[in-house]
Amino acid sequence: MTVRILLSILILFCAGAGHVQAAEYPSVKVAEPYLDLRTGPGRGYPKTQIVERGDWVEVMMRRTDWIKVRTRKGFEGWAHQDDMAKTLDPDGEPTQISTVGEGEFVHRRWEVGFKVGTFAGARTSDAYLGYYFTDNLSAEVTVGEAFGTSVDFQFLNLSLTHQPWPQWRYSPYITLGGGAKQTSYASTEVQLSSRTDQTLHAGLGLRVYLTRQLMARAEYRNTVILTDQEQNEESDEWTIGLSAFF
Asked: For the CA atoms of 67, 73, 74, 80, what is the dihedral angle to 10 degrees?
């Protein structure tokens, strides 16, 4: 039930985030003999358009070192930031193109990474994907496993995280959520069957901006395992890892 409720919340948030009004884009003027445009944000994509000197293009969005633009005729393509830095703004000055840095860290929308640590004394490794509804609020999906001497765990978690000060290079956050945990027992004289339990968790963490699109992350979680027994189980989890944002 907990997993279904959190999935419903995530779907509603994502649906609401999709209603964005059309924006007016700034324009820059090509100052070099030409500006190459590619079909995607990378040198592996083919060149399909050349914008000549004196023409104007609208700056639409950015992905790492590549910038998506639209010509006056409506053609859209991607140009490298070094080439865009050679264009001119409406005042005739060189266009200021900032490198990927802390500004993108603050306003990131997607985050993907991995973490390692301990859960109830077992070694853990997990991977996660996060989406930011705002600079402060995000939803995350985490899958992972833990290996102990006599018991192994596999888990799936959905979390909401709140980051009060996203502009800080060392940015603390809190996380709440739930999920499911499958427990598998090693072969012993007493055979125990695997079981799956629902979980709830709360935790504290710290994101640290490193460079370009990379950051480090450390987190503590207290997890309550909802069992069929009279008393629920409780475990602590400590993790540290690396992630990329875009």
From this structure: -10
pLDDT in tens, 86-107: 999 888 888 887 655 666 777 7
CATH of span 104-245? 2.40.160.20
Q: Where exactly does CATH 2.40.160.20 map onto the chain?
A: 104-245
Written as one letter, the residue type at 222 is N
Strand residue runs (E) in 1-150: 27-29, 34-38, 47-52, 56-63, 66-71, 76-80, 110-119, 122-132, 137-147
Superfamily of domain 22-97: SH3 Domains (2.30.30.40)
Share of the chain above pLDDT 70, in %: 85
Residues carrying CATH 2.30.30.40, the chain: 22-97
Rg (CA), the chain: 24
Q: How far apart are CA 208 and CA 243, in angstroms?
A: 10
